[in-house]
Design goal:
The chain is mainly alpha-helical. Helices cover about 45% and strands about 5% of the residues. It is built from 3 helices and 2 strands; from the N terminus they run βαααβ.
C-alpha cells in the first residue's frame, strides 16, 4: 500500500485518495486494469490524469510504501 510521506504538503484529489491505498511502489507507467475497473464510475480521462499525478508524486519522492 502506497501512501504520502509524513511531512508531505501535497493534497490528493478524490480519485487519487481512492487509488493510493490500492497500489504499491514502484508504480507502473499504465494504471492497472483492475484499478480502472474499480474506478469505472469516474471518467476515463479523470482516472488517467489522477494516475499521472501519482506518477509525478512518486518521481518527486513524495510517496512511500
Amino acid at each position: 500500500m502506497a501512501k504520502l510521506k509524513e511531512d508531505s504538503q501535497v493534497l490528493l484529489n478524490p480519485i487519487q485518495k481512492k487509488m493510493l491505498p490500492a497500489v504499491t511502489l514502484p508504480l507502473s507507467e499504465e494504471c492497472p486494469t483492475a484499478l480502472r475497473y474499480a474506478l469505472a464510475k469516474y471518467a476515463a480521462t479523470a482516472v488517467s490524469d489522477a494516475w499521472e499525478g501519482l506518477l509525478a508524486l512518486e518521481e518527486a519522492g513524495e510517496l512511500t510504501d
